[in-house]
Write a structure and sequence with these properties.
The chain has about 110 residues and is of the alpha+beta class. It contains 3 helices and 5 strands. Helix content is about 25%, strand content about 20%. Strand 1 and strand 2 form a beta hairpin. The chain is globular and about 45 Å long. The structure holds guanosine-5'-monophosphate (5GP) and zinc ion. Zinc ion (ZN) binds next to helix 1. One of its GO terms (biological process) is nucleotide metabolic process.
Length: about 110
């Protein structure tokens, strides 16, 4: 379900278009966009439209949807090396309390040499 949103959540606002974002792929259940403070060129975020703070609060079906899109984005970046990162809880470095997967390309020397 995509029904649950939180009025005060910045990622829910991004899904609703109330905060602008550079959208990559939108599906019925997911939304993905470029990270505003990228650790590398192409650093992207994939979220479920359904609002949940942490991974274990998401329905199983949502996990499949998110990971499928994370894979598509990873392929689209063309990066041979990349990290998929997902933080839960402040101590674990989660800053935005809406579940999100980072897709972070890891440039190699040959990538940067173009
Ligand atoms: P966390 O530390 O919670 O795993 O990561 C949150 C990520 O969201 C950070 O990489 C941060 O740059 C990104 N972020 C925070 N606010 C915004 C925003 O308003 N727009 C976009 N595109 N990214 C954001
Ligand atoms: Zn939210």
């Amino acid at each position: 379900s995509s029904a649950k949103t939180l009025a005060t959540c910045i990622f829910c606002k991004i899904v609703k278009g109330e905060i602008p974002s550079f959208k990559l792929i939108e599906t019925e259940t997911t939304y993905s966009f470029l990270d505003i403070n990228p650790l590398a060129k192409g650093h992207s975020l994939v979220i479920s439209k359904y609002h949940a703070e942490k991974l274990h609060e998401l329905p199983d079906e949502s996990l499949t949807d998110i990971l499928r899109i994370a894979k598509q984005i990873a392929v689209a970046t063309g990066a041979e090396n990349y990290n998929i990162l997902q933080n839960n809880g402040r101590i674990a470095h989660q800053e935005v309390d809406h579940v999100h997967f980072h897709v972070i390309p890891k440039p190699s020397t040959s990538d940067t040499e173009g």
